[in-house]
Design goal:
By secondary structure, the chain is mainly alpha-helical. Helix content is 48%, strand content 9%.
Length: 116
């Protein structure tokens, strides 16, 4: 932007740099963009945790069925007996990624209490 000098109306002075309003507007735009990106990322993480919980439920119910076929009875509702057998969960029993709670079975091998 060119402005005229107060001493000589014919000499143009070029100004370098940004005004305070321009800097403030740029920071405001960047702040709004960051807020939108963070809210989208948070929503994606929540969706991924819910999907992981559903996957864990499927794995636990499948392993409970295998336990039933091998032993003739369902595993304990808190899965304490199946937890010690590395053939079923080599890296240990999974916990819910949404709320960090352990999974429980009803009397028929279905996971209860996780309705995310």
């Amino acid at each position: 932007m060119k402005t005229r000098s107060a001493e000589s109306p014919c000499v143009a002075i070029t100004r370098t740099g940004l005004s305070l309003i321009e800097v403030t507007a740029a920071i405001l735009v960047l702040g709004i963009a960051a807020a939108l990106i963070l809210s989208t990322a948070r929503r994606c993480v929540s969706t991924a945790d819910t999907a992981a919980c559903h996957s864990n439920i499927g794995d636990i119910e499948l392993q409970a069925e295998l336990w039933l076929q091998h032993t003739g009875s369902w595993p304990a509702n808190d899965l304490s007996d199946i937890d010690g057998d590395l053939d079923y969960f080599p890296s240990g029993l999974p916990v819910c990624p949404v709320d960090g709670t352990s999974y429980q079975l009803d009397g028929a091998g279905s996971v209860v209490g996780h309705t995310h």
